[in-house]
Amino acid sequence: MKPHGTQLSLFETRSLSDPFAVRVSPRARRLTARVHVGGRVEIVVPVGVNAHAVRDFVQRFTPWIDRKVAAMRCFVAPAEPVPPSIAFAFTGEQLAVEWRRGPSRRLERHADRLVLQAPDDSAARMLLQSWLKAAAEERLAPRLLELADELKYSVARVRIRCQRTRWGSCSTRGTVSLNCSLVFLRPEVVRYLFIHELAHTKHMNHSASFWRLVEKIEPDYRRLDRELLAGWRTVPAWVFKN
Ligand SMILES: [Zn+2]
Known about the structure:
The protein is of the alpha/beta class.
């Protein structure tokens, strides 16, 4: 979007030297800051919110944004097209990846190896990415449903997405979306994210009542929430590279 007054005045007030974008969204109901992989910051602004309110918001959340930018930045390492191995902290699985160039596109799992055939780097990576999505669904969805059952929450649907910005989200209709990269995190941290999203089926916000509910189920949620945020660093770069 074109730079305008709001954006220029924001540049002056941020302590961060990085440029960031302001996007006015007709769908947004409140001000939000999004930090993308690599550290790009985007402030999403509902229609009709003035520059002053945006500036206040950015100032108030600067420490949070800076922390998140640092986390998201570490995460960008020069990517090998296909990694030599894949480790899922969630399940403890360690898989060697064997990649051969060839005319067909094929991916097979043999015990602790993934055998991959593809004509070029990007085809190989795409195969691996779609395998990851399916593998994540197989491992994460049943565990979320189990936990929901145990805690007496209802989940209408589980979706696996490979977003760059969020570990999970929850819709008013009870669809919980989980990031495929959760398989790279420890089970305890993933369980916390599950609890976080389940609590959102009761409170669609981060109000005090929301956090009280989270705390009731997981008293150690603060530590786990920090680990979750830092978790972007443990996600290998090939997951998102196009
Ligand atoms: Zn939340």
